[in-house]
User: What shape does this take?
Amino acid sequence: MNKIKQLVYNYFELSKYDTSISKEIIAGLSTYLSLAYIFIVNPAIMSNTGMNITALLFATIVASAVSTIFMGLYARLPFALAPGLEMNGFFTFVVVGAMGLTWQQALGAVFWSGVLCLVFTIVPFRKAIIDSIPNGLKKTMAVSVGVFVMTIGLYLSGLVKFTDGHITGYDLSPTPKVLALFIGLIISALLGMRRLKFPAGMLIAIIVATIYCTANGIITKTPATSSWDDMVSACFKIDFIPTLRLLPIYLIFFLIDFYGSIGKFIGLTASTDLRQKDGSIPRMAQAMGVDAGGTILGAFVGTSSIITYVESAVGIEMGGRTGIVALVCGILMFASLLFTPLIGLVPVEATAGILIYVGYLIMRDTDSPDDKNLDKFFITVVTIMGLISFLTFSLDKAMMFGFLAYTIRQVFFEKVVNWYLIVSAILISVSVILPILIK
Assistant: This one.
């Protein structure tokens, strides 16, 4: 037994990150609870395409679990993966709804976008892009991720309402959902104080918030499972045939997934010991390969693009540092196939306060750039990017502004031509503008 334990410690480098198996397991469980809502939300959204909701539940669980387990075993990083809310919304309401494509054709677009991500990962173009991003921009991206996590919490609690990526209203009344947010936020903040260092503070906050939500009638219902034929009815139904009309769709799925994952990798590891001294992240190529492979798998089993989830920050902030976090989370995802009614025990509203706290931690741990001459510029960009993340409920628009701002500064003020940064700014801008033109 001791030999097996030692093998685990060596493979996942637990001693290097001053963590333990028990801490990693708790972090994995907490990450799972914080994103389990996607197993309810993704089928609910994508069923508007006419797809079988049971098939969507099966596809969501299988694609998420396999991708997350591979992230843990192969990349050995504490990231969880699942269908992205920004991706399934575009898939459902724009590609299928507004453009009139079949869901099979939309899955084809998802598949080819995953192939493109995988190709650019293999040819080290993706890593070169990350290395080309200025230190200040990496930090502003991290802040944007923090704001985005907090915005998700505000949205889930009903405090802020969004429609088509724009704020449409506020509800400041003390509803049970809002009170659930404050319960989760206060408990996680108190138990997460540096002096106390309680190891499972956010997990306890989620449980207490869940009990409160249940007592007040806030219960998430899971789609009832049906026959095996229903569960696999969307598998291998991809329409692979590319057409000129679909090229913009391929590009949009590709760019949002490609640059979105870069932003999340950077944001989730900000000011943690997951970063090396030069600012790089170990085994990034493996992580990006898993991210791309997950999207391909998702298309095969019948769901939209698989992305690295910002809710991974919950486990990371609890001290999770290795692939054990992802491994535990992935196993629990698979277990959801057998215990789907249990997913409903954690309503999405119960995670709102924890997400607010995690977003705060991400921003708190982001220091200003080392170059003091960039302070005013950094503060301006980070403020605007944060506002964009909040006001538009998206990361891609905030990233577009950040990349354009730093590109303009380098080219016109520093007289530096960074082609990777320039191309990135152009491609991100295209990914933001194209959906608007298509609508």
User: Anything to note?
Assistant: The chain has 20 helices and four strands. The first strand starts at residue 81 and ends at 83.
